[in-house]
Amino acid sequence: MADLSAFPITQRWPAQNPDVIQLYSLATPNGVKVSIALEELGLPYEAHLIDIGTDVQKAPEFLSLNPNGRIPAIIDPDGPNGQPIGLFESGAILVYLAEKTGKLLPQDPAKRYDALCWLFFQMGGVGPMFGQFGHFYKYAAAKVANNSYPVDRYREESKRLLGVLEERLKTQEWLAGDDYSIADIATFPWVNGARIHYGAADVLTFDAFPHVMAWVDKALARPAVEKGMTVCKIG
Ligand SMILES: N[C@@H](CCC(=O)N[C@@H](CS)C(=O)NCC(=O)O)C(=O)O
Fold first, then answer.
1. Ligand 1 contact, 33 CB (< 6 A)
2. Per-domain residue ranges for the chain?
3. Degrees (nearest 5) of the Cα angle 155, 191, 199?
4. Can you give the pLDDT at residue 181?
5. Comparing C-alpha atoms, which of 53, 55, 54, 57 is closest to residue 73?
6. Best mutation site among 28, 30, 58, 197 for ligand 1, i.e. most ligand atoms within 8 A of its Cβ?
7. What is the pTM of this model?
8. Superfamily grouping for domain 9-104
9. CATH of region 109-223
10. Which of 71, 90, 122, 232, when mutated, tests ligand 1's pocket best, judged by the most ligand atoms within 8 Å of its CB?
11. Fewer C-beta neighbours within 10 Å, C or N terminus of the chain?
12. Distance between CA 138 and CA 8 in Å, rounded?
Protein backbone atom coordinates (compact mmCIF):
# COMPACT_ATOMS: atom_id res chain seq x y z
CA MET A 1 0.00 0.00 0.00
CA ALA A 2 1.34 3.44 -0.98
CA ASP A 3 2.57 5.69 1.82
CA LEU A 4 1.15 9.21 1.39
CA SER A 5 2.15 10.41 4.86
CA ALA A 6 4.55 12.93 3.32
CA PHE A 7 1.47 14.82 2.03
CA PRO A 8 -0.16 16.74 4.93
CA ILE A 9 -3.35 17.17 2.88
CA THR A 10 -4.08 13.48 3.53
CA GLN A 11 -4.40 14.24 7.27
CA ARG A 12 -7.43 16.45 6.64
CA TRP A 13 -8.79 14.47 3.67
CA PRO A 14 -7.66 10.87 4.39
CA ALA A 15 -7.14 8.46 1.53
CA GLN A 16 -9.36 5.38 1.76
CA ASN A 17 -7.34 3.79 -1.03
CA PRO A 18 -3.86 5.38 -1.14
CA ASP A 19 -2.90 3.22 -4.13
CA VAL A 20 -5.06 5.27 -6.51
CA ILE A 21 -4.84 8.90 -7.63
CA GLN A 22 -6.20 11.29 -5.02
CA LEU A 23 -8.25 14.12 -6.54
CA TYR A 24 -9.04 17.30 -4.58
CA SER A 25 -11.62 19.23 -6.52
CA LEU A 26 -15.04 20.77 -6.99
CA ALA A 27 -17.27 20.61 -10.08
CA THR A 28 -16.29 24.06 -11.40
CA PRO A 29 -14.98 24.63 -14.96
CA ASN A 30 -11.39 24.19 -13.72
CA GLY A 31 -12.27 21.31 -11.41
CA VAL A 32 -14.13 19.17 -13.94
CA LYS A 33 -11.22 19.27 -16.37
CA VAL A 34 -9.37 16.75 -14.20
CA SER A 35 -12.32 14.49 -13.33
CA ILE A 36 -13.27 14.37 -17.02
CA ALA A 37 -9.69 13.46 -18.00
CA LEU A 38 -9.52 10.74 -15.32
CA GLU A 39 -12.82 9.29 -16.57
CA GLU A 40 -11.73 9.47 -20.21
CA LEU A 41 -8.47 7.71 -19.36
CA GLY A 42 -10.11 5.09 -17.16
CA LEU A 43 -7.63 5.76 -14.36
CA PRO A 44 -8.79 4.70 -10.88
CA TYR A 45 -9.06 7.62 -8.47
CA GLU A 46 -10.53 8.74 -5.19
CA ALA A 47 -12.30 12.11 -5.18
CA HIS A 48 -12.29 14.54 -2.25
CA LEU A 49 -14.82 17.36 -2.50
CA ILE A 50 -13.23 20.71 -1.65
CA ASP A 51 -15.98 23.21 -0.92
CA ILE A 52 -14.25 26.45 -1.92
CA GLY A 53 -17.23 28.42 -0.60
CA THR A 54 -15.96 27.63 2.91
CA ASP A 55 -12.35 28.63 2.09
CA VAL A 56 -10.92 25.22 3.06
CA GLN A 57 -8.61 25.58 0.06
CA LYS A 58 -6.74 28.21 2.10
CA ALA A 59 -6.18 25.82 5.04
CA PRO A 60 -2.54 24.80 5.69
CA GLU A 61 -3.20 21.17 4.73
CA PHE A 62 -4.52 22.18 1.32
CA LEU A 63 -1.78 24.79 0.81
CA SER A 64 0.77 22.03 1.42
CA LEU A 65 -0.30 20.53 -1.92
CA ASN A 66 -1.17 23.73 -3.78
CA PRO A 67 0.50 26.86 -2.35
CA ASN A 68 -1.89 28.88 -4.53
CA GLY A 69 -4.89 27.62 -2.54
CA ARG A 70 -7.09 26.64 -5.48
CA ILE A 71 -8.68 23.51 -6.87
CA PRO A 72 -7.97 21.19 -8.62
CA ALA A 73 -4.95 19.32 -7.26
CA ILE A 74 -3.93 15.66 -7.27
CA ILE A 75 -1.55 13.18 -5.70
CA ASP A 76 -0.49 10.26 -7.87
CA PRO A 77 0.99 7.49 -5.66
CA ASP A 78 2.56 6.01 -8.80
CA GLY A 79 4.38 9.05 -10.20
CA PRO A 80 7.73 9.28 -12.00
CA ASN A 81 10.10 6.44 -10.98
CA GLY A 82 7.19 4.88 -9.10
CA GLN A 83 7.33 7.60 -6.44
CA PRO A 84 4.30 9.64 -5.27
CA ILE A 85 3.92 13.06 -6.84
CA GLY A 86 1.65 16.01 -6.04
CA LEU A 87 0.45 18.38 -8.75
CA PHE A 88 -1.62 21.56 -9.01
CA GLU A 89 -2.72 23.84 -11.90
CA SER A 90 -5.25 22.10 -14.10
CA GLY A 91 -3.18 22.50 -17.29
CA ALA A 92 -0.14 20.85 -15.71
CA ILE A 93 -2.31 18.04 -14.34
CA LEU A 94 -3.85 17.42 -17.78
CA VAL A 95 -0.42 17.25 -19.43
CA TYR A 96 0.79 14.91 -16.67
CA LEU A 97 -2.15 12.53 -17.07
CA ALA A 98 -1.86 12.58 -20.87
CA GLU A 99 1.87 11.82 -20.72
CA LYS A 100 1.40 9.14 -18.06
CA THR A 101 -1.04 7.25 -20.28
CA GLY A 102 0.08 8.24 -23.79
CA LYS A 103 -3.50 9.33 -24.54
CA LEU A 104 -5.43 12.58 -25.17
CA LEU A 105 -2.34 14.33 -26.57
CA PRO A 106 -1.05 13.60 -30.10
CA GLN A 107 2.19 11.63 -30.32
CA ASP A 108 3.35 13.44 -33.46
CA PRO A 109 5.54 16.34 -32.19
CA ALA A 110 4.04 19.07 -34.40
CA LYS A 111 0.49 18.00 -33.54
CA ARG A 112 1.43 17.74 -29.88
CA TYR A 113 2.68 21.33 -29.81
CA ASP A 114 -0.47 22.44 -31.65
CA ALA A 115 -2.55 20.83 -28.88
CA LEU A 116 -0.39 22.56 -26.25
CA CYS A 117 -0.93 25.93 -27.98
CA TRP A 118 -4.68 25.51 -27.58
CA LEU A 119 -4.31 24.23 -24.03
CA PHE A 120 -2.30 27.31 -23.05
CA PHE A 121 -4.74 29.54 -24.95
CA GLN A 122 -7.36 28.27 -22.53
CA MET A 123 -5.15 28.56 -19.46
CA GLY A 124 -4.03 32.12 -20.22
CA GLY A 125 -7.10 33.41 -22.07
CA VAL A 126 -10.46 31.67 -21.90
CA GLY A 127 -10.23 30.68 -18.22
CA PRO A 128 -9.09 34.01 -16.74
CA MET A 129 -11.25 36.20 -19.01
CA PHE A 130 -14.43 34.14 -18.69
CA GLY A 131 -13.76 33.90 -14.95
CA GLN A 132 -13.51 37.67 -14.57
CA PHE A 133 -16.58 38.14 -16.74
CA GLY A 134 -18.57 35.74 -14.53
CA HIS A 135 -17.33 37.46 -11.40
CA PHE A 136 -18.52 40.92 -12.42
CA TYR A 137 -21.57 39.83 -14.42
CA LYS A 138 -23.00 37.45 -11.83
CA TYR A 139 -21.23 37.12 -8.48
CA ALA A 140 -20.25 40.78 -7.87
CA ALA A 141 -23.02 42.39 -9.95
CA ALA A 142 -24.24 44.48 -7.02
CA LYS A 143 -20.75 45.92 -6.44
CA VAL A 144 -20.46 47.20 -10.01
CA ALA A 145 -24.07 48.27 -10.46
CA ASN A 146 -22.93 51.89 -11.05
CA ASN A 147 -19.98 51.06 -13.27
CA SER A 148 -20.45 49.02 -16.45
CA TYR A 149 -16.75 49.04 -17.36
CA PRO A 150 -15.71 45.67 -15.82
CA VAL A 151 -18.63 43.75 -17.35
CA ASP A 152 -18.19 45.51 -20.71
CA ARG A 153 -14.48 44.80 -20.79
CA TYR A 154 -14.63 41.10 -19.89
CA ARG A 155 -17.80 40.44 -21.93
CA GLU A 156 -16.16 41.84 -25.06
CA GLU A 157 -12.91 39.98 -24.42
CA SER A 158 -14.84 36.73 -23.82
CA LYS A 159 -16.73 37.25 -27.09
CA ARG A 160 -13.46 37.90 -28.90
CA LEU A 161 -12.06 34.62 -27.55
CA LEU A 162 -15.23 32.80 -28.62
CA GLY A 163 -14.58 34.24 -32.09
CA VAL A 164 -11.07 32.76 -32.09
CA LEU A 165 -12.51 29.35 -31.12
CA GLU A 166 -15.22 29.70 -33.78
CA GLU A 167 -12.66 30.25 -36.55
CA ARG A 168 -10.64 27.25 -35.41
CA LEU A 169 -13.65 24.96 -35.14
CA LYS A 170 -14.94 25.94 -38.59
CA THR A 171 -12.12 23.88 -40.09
CA GLN A 172 -11.15 21.43 -37.31
CA GLU A 173 -13.35 18.87 -35.62
CA TRP A 174 -11.54 19.30 -32.31
CA LEU A 175 -9.23 22.06 -31.10
CA ALA A 176 -6.07 20.08 -31.83
CA GLY A 177 -7.35 18.74 -35.17
CA ASP A 178 -8.88 15.34 -35.83
CA ASP A 179 -8.64 13.95 -32.32
CA TYR A 180 -10.29 14.95 -29.07
CA SER A 181 -7.54 16.00 -26.64
CA ILE A 182 -6.78 17.69 -23.33
CA ALA A 183 -7.11 21.03 -25.19
CA ASP A 184 -10.84 20.32 -25.61
CA ILE A 185 -11.19 19.03 -22.04
CA ALA A 186 -9.64 22.27 -20.75
CA THR A 187 -11.83 24.57 -22.80
CA PHE A 188 -15.39 23.38 -23.37
CA PRO A 189 -16.25 23.37 -19.60
CA TRP A 190 -15.64 27.15 -19.58
CA VAL A 191 -18.01 27.78 -22.48
CA ASN A 192 -20.59 25.46 -20.99
CA GLY A 193 -20.00 27.04 -17.57
CA ALA A 194 -20.81 30.52 -18.90
CA ARG A 195 -24.15 29.09 -19.89
CA ILE A 196 -24.99 27.05 -16.80
CA HIS A 197 -23.20 28.96 -14.01
CA TYR A 198 -23.49 32.56 -15.27
CA GLY A 199 -26.69 32.28 -17.36
CA ALA A 200 -24.81 34.32 -19.97
CA ALA A 201 -25.59 32.55 -23.27
CA ASP A 202 -27.50 35.58 -24.56
CA VAL A 203 -25.19 38.28 -23.34
CA LEU A 204 -22.17 36.43 -24.79
CA THR A 205 -24.14 35.98 -28.06
CA PHE A 206 -23.64 32.20 -28.17
CA ASP A 207 -25.85 32.02 -31.29
CA ALA A 208 -23.13 33.88 -33.18
CA PHE A 209 -20.72 30.97 -32.56
CA PRO A 210 -22.50 27.89 -33.98
CA HIS A 211 -19.34 25.80 -34.44
CA VAL A 212 -18.32 26.42 -30.83
CA MET A 213 -21.73 25.44 -29.55
CA ALA A 214 -21.84 22.27 -31.68
CA TRP A 215 -18.38 21.34 -30.35
CA VAL A 216 -19.50 21.88 -26.74
CA ASP A 217 -22.57 19.71 -27.29
CA LYS A 218 -20.49 16.99 -28.95
CA ALA A 219 -18.10 16.94 -25.98
CA LEU A 220 -20.95 16.93 -23.45
CA ALA A 221 -22.42 13.85 -25.14
CA ARG A 222 -19.34 11.75 -24.29
CA PRO A 223 -20.12 9.33 -21.41
CA ALA A 224 -16.84 10.15 -19.63
CA VAL A 225 -17.70 13.84 -19.75
CA GLU A 226 -21.17 13.22 -18.37
CA LYS A 227 -19.65 11.25 -15.48
CA GLY A 228 -16.72 13.62 -14.93
CA MET A 229 -19.03 16.62 -14.63
CA THR A 230 -20.81 15.05 -11.64
CA VAL A 231 -17.68 14.25 -9.60
CA CYS A 232 -17.17 16.56 -6.61
CA LYS A 233 -20.53 18.20 -7.21
CA ILE A 234 -22.25 19.75 -4.21
CA GLY A 235 -25.81 18.55 -3.66
N1 LIG B 1 -5.12 28.34 -12.96
C2 LIG B 1 -5.76 27.51 -11.98
C3 LIG B 1 -7.04 28.18 -11.56
C4 LIG B 1 -7.75 27.38 -10.48
C5 LIG B 1 -8.94 28.15 -9.94
O6 LIG B 1 -9.08 29.36 -10.15
N7 LIG B 1 -9.78 27.42 -9.20
C8 LIG B 1 -10.92 28.06 -8.56
C9 LIG B 1 -12.19 27.28 -8.84
S10 LIG B 1 -12.57 27.24 -10.57
C11 LIG B 1 -10.70 28.11 -7.07
O12 LIG B 1 -10.18 27.18 -6.49
N13 LIG B 1 -11.12 29.21 -6.43
C14 LIG B 1 -11.04 29.33 -5.01
C15 LIG B 1 -10.26 30.53 -4.56
O16 LIG B 1 -9.89 31.35 -5.42
O17 LIG B 1 -10.02 30.65 -3.37
C18 LIG B 1 -6.02 26.12 -12.57
O19 LIG B 1 -6.30 26.05 -13.76
O20 LIG B 1 -5.91 25.11 -11.83
1. no
2. 9-104, 109-223
3. 65
4. 98
5. 57
6. 30
7. 0.98
8. Glutaredoxin (3.40.30.10)
9. 1.20.1050.10
10. 71
11. C
12. 35
